[in-house]
Each structure stands twice: as structure tokens, then as C-alpha cells.
Write a structure and sequence with these properties.
Structural class: mainly alpha
Shape: extended
Largest sheet: none
Order of helices and strands: HHHHHHHH
Radius of gyration: 25 Å
Number of domains: 2
Number of helices: 8
Number of strands: 0
Distance between the termini: 63 Å
Helix content: over 70%
Length: 193
Amino acid sequence: MESLQSLIEHYGYFAVFVGCFLEGETVLVLGGFAAHMGYLSLPGVIATAAVAGFVGDQVLFWIGRRWGETIFARHPKLAALRPRATQLLDKYGGWAAFGLRFMVGMRLAGAIAIGAAGFPQHRFLPANAAGATVWAVLIGSAGYAFGQAFTLFLERARHLELAAFAALAVIGVVTVFLLRKRRRQWAGASAPR
């Protein structure tokens, strides 16, 4: 049986690619964390995420161009996000294609809406590439920094292990005592008189 480290080393970049192709933030943060732990390389995680995010949004753009109206008609939750995406596209043009991936829940609906709106491919492509790159760097680096902060916290908190264990033991004893007391009260209340 393979160890967790071995699984991450063998399939980590594939997992980052698939996760970032589909949606991505959580997977990318975990990829950055895995890079901090030494299982993956941070530049590799960032490059993989940037390519996957770019390709994923290009596919969504073309899906929107071809089947956008049908998708919005069949999926009311996506359709509810369309006006916001269209408003941003009207106001900011290509910058909307760059920035929608940073808005929670808007990546999928945004790329489809931009495609459905007939936005020119030659303007979407560079904005999507820039957005995917910046997104991968920021979120991947945040995962790496989170890993560093978490490791520092554990190192500093190591001296608190005994106190934490003692606190858990006290809570456990008090809980058992209170449950026994409550059980005796229930037994006394239900006893025949």
C-alpha cells in the first residue's frame, strides 16, 4: 500500500490539474500546502493550476458560445448569476474575463455568460490567460503560506501539548460526572412512589 506522501508525489499534479480545470480554489490551496510540505514543487503547482484554469475557462467560453442559452434555460442557479456577469462584461470588457475567476461562484457562470454574449475570442484569450496566471500565483502562494504558518503554529504550540491534554482530560471527567448525576436524577424522578 502506498503512503500518503507517495500518492501525493505521484498524483498531486494531476489532482491539481483536474481540480483547477473544474473550479479550483480549494485544490490549489491544498496543492500549495503540499508544496510547503515538500511533496510537490510550488512553481509546478502554480504552472499546473494556471494551465488548467486557462484551459477550463476556454472550454467554458466555447460551451457558452455554442450552448449558453440552453444551459442557462436548464440551470436557474447559473442563470441567476448571468446578469451580474453580463453587467461586469458591459462595464469592464476584457477585464471582466480577467476578474470573474476571483469572484466566488462566478467562474463557471461568468465564462459561459461571456461566451454566450458573443464576446470576441481574441479579447477573451489574453484576459483569460492573465487571469489564470495571477489566480494561480496568488492562491497557490496562499496555500504555501498557510502551510508555513500552520507549521510555525505547531512548533510554537508544542509546549502546550501537556496543558491541552490536561484540559481535555478535565473536560472528559466533568462530562462523565455530569452525565452520571443527570442519569441519577432521571432515575429518581421516574421511580414509583
